[in-house]
Amino acid sequence: MTWYKFLARGALGPFSGYTWPAPDGLGHPGEWLAATRLEPCRSGLHLLRPEDLPYWLCEELYTVEVEGEVVPHGSFVLARRARLVDRVGAWRQDAAVAFCEDCTVRVRDLAVEALRAEDRLADAGRLAACGTTEEIQAVAERIAEDTDEVVSPLMGYALDAAKFTDSARSSERWAAGTATTAFVTAKAAAVAADGSAGHDATAAERRRQGEWLASHLLVAH
To answer: Which domain of life does the protein's organism represent (predicted)?
Structure first.
């Protein structure tokens, strides 16, 4: 099985601060790393399955080879011995922006459903007609400004998703903007769900995000 690892620029672990030995891009993997024990967030080599990708977005994505034991822990797995094999070239800023745009459209749709449930059909139609994140942001702002009534909190999530998508499009810290957009979208799914269904809705949205990333990035891997 192929495993994955998100790292900051230069193959740097964003939390550990450890620089992984990187592959040379000519078919030669990085050096093997080994851990003496497996303890989540403390020790062990933290790796990802395809469905884990949206939880750990960062600037560089690598395929990883593992030897020996692999233990699952929520949104990652732990391994005792692993090495980076190849960088996933499809994961670039333009792919991240496309992912953010997809997430923002998802939040737009949730907000449209909320407006329709409030019998605000004209506003729902205006928002549903938005085809770009810039349009979503502008229309959502106008809807919030043009009424004295309480606006569904999903309008705020739509605004946030659009704004962080713009950050991913223009900022040097595009990966941070992408991770935040994905988080906002998952939270919006929870808000749109009824009560105790929020946890399941969040998990379903994260699965949807993982499927998007896998289908757009991992085809060749």
So the answer is: Bacteria
